[in-house]
Amino acid sequence: MPHYLFPNKYLNYQDMMADIDALCTQFPKKIDFEKIEIAKTPEGRSLIAIRVYPKGKSIEQPTLWFDANMHSLEFIGTNTVLAHMENLIHKLTNNETKYNTVNYVFVPRICPDGTEQYFTDGRRNRSNARDSRKRKELGSYWKRECLIDKEERNIPLDLFKNKKRIGYMRKKSTSGIWVCDELYPQLMRHRELGDCEPFYDIYHEGVIENYDGMNIPSARTLGDNEVDLNRNFPAEWSPNQPENMSGRMSLSEVESKAIAEFASKIPQIYFWLNYHTFGGVFIRPLESQEDSAMNILDRSVYQTLDKKIEEITGYPAVSGHSEFTYIPGKPLQGCLTTFSYQALGAYSYVCELWDLPARIGRSERPFIKRYDFWEKKEWRKIFEYDRDQNQSIIFGNPWKSYQHEQLGEVEISEFPSQFGICNPPQKLIHEVIQNQVPLLSLLVDLAPQPKIETKILNTQEKNIKNIELSISNIGFLPTYVSEARNKSQGNKKIIVEIIDVKNASLIGNSIYLLEPLAGYCAIVNGWINSPDLGSNSCSSKTLRIPFAVHKENDQFAVVFKVSFSHLGDYFATFGEI
Prior knowledge:
By secondary structure, the protein is an alpha+beta fold. The protein folds into 3 domains: about 15-115 and about 230-355, Zn peptidases (Aminopeptidase, 3-Layer(aba) Sandwich); about 130-225 and about 375-415, no CATH class; about 450-575, Sandwich (Immunoglobulin-like), CATH 2.60.40. Helix content is about 20%, strand content about 25%. The protein is built from 14 helices and 24 strands. The strands form 5 sheets. The chain has an 8-stranded mixed sheet, sandwiched between helices. The chain has a 6-stranded antiparallel sheet with strand order 8-7-9-6-16-15, with no helix packed on it. Helix 1 packs parallel to helix 2 (about 75-95). The longest helix is centred in the first third of the chain and has 18 residues, at about 75-95. The protein is elongated and about 105 Å long. About 40% of the residues are buried. The model has no long low-confidence stretch (mean pLDDT about 95). GO terms for molecular function: metallocarboxypeptidase activity; zinc ion binding.
């Protein structure tokens, strides 16, 4: 396998930028690409997109989008996007021509500031360690900081060499909700019926700001973790800060605004894959409604893709509303894939990499139930695999006594679940990514593929010639991509223009407007696809356009331009210009 395709380590910002640069040197010379800084973060890091144009930068084509790591601790998504990029380079180098028929966008890390903060000092954030709220808005909250030096560990990550990394504190409490497992005392798990003391409360390592001397804030009450980027997009957005960290307004964050603005300038995007962890599942729209509320074409495409994706990756593909709503009756709001589908009209999926629930025996449906009721049976399996396969990164850290100025006697340790729970152990990166890479072939095959052909038809009049212009779509998706795109952007016509004529004169119109073309996607309507049903949609159009030839023996020529608003411009030439 190529060197970068399945790296055996998680990438900090410097590593990621170096790998991007190294991959860019591997593109064949004939392939155009751009490494674009689409935003500069508040901490001065670049949000990078790589655009690839197999037929040249000036050629618009259906476009495929990959991104990852909009949640700061979901590192393996970055590795996966880079693996897709390297796989594409391999296909282009080997002249596999079907990969020339679409353009590509790769965004390996949407949240570089938050991710780098964890790699530096172990501070966990949903997205960024950033907060615009004032102290009086926050009230009493936890300010995270290192209170006791940690031991260096023989683990190939810079984080574990930093003695000032931030961990967790536990304090004995008769009403505490955490307990040491009786079989594995190093395992802290949630208290269950029948458990015996001692019980503990657990908080982030740090101190309480605005402390009144009596009331200890919840461990989730932090002064630097305001916005979840994946609740900040302008589709079904809601200003619900306490529950979903959506921000004061949609696109309030540099990163979410940059992604939305950059993508909105690429109307050719037909498919969007947004990598997260963990679970081992693909999740698609709709979030707020059942599939029955979706147009039949879009529903048919999604249901077809659900089956194909599971066949290729082994991960089930599910409706967000039906199988991935955390709290019944409260669908997720402001998600990136809701925006990319509803506003941009691109078929969109989240992929939650790393099928840890299945590996510990959880197979329930709806899928969200696989995260419920992790009790001692599940946590003991996690402990054993951490001990046997993961160098005890998660549970192998001793608790050390500390006299806290506000809480009194506490113990401090670490729980770096990002390396084993949120992401797979580093040695399993290859295994997790390898089932994703074959998706590239499927996703390229989805694209609408206009085909333009011309031929001459003789007439009874010697100086009159008809050009038959055939416009067809040989791709899976229609040329308008989705009904969601029609709904958000309007039904756009195909525009046919005669832009150049040699040795002849056009008779009639120079511009024609045609309806969009269907693809070969089967409509899922409760009945079998049988040949006796015939064809009921139009995937081709034909125009006969007359020309008056100046001289009978002269070779005349015509250039046609066929414009698809969501795909680009296509050209066909009859004769030689």
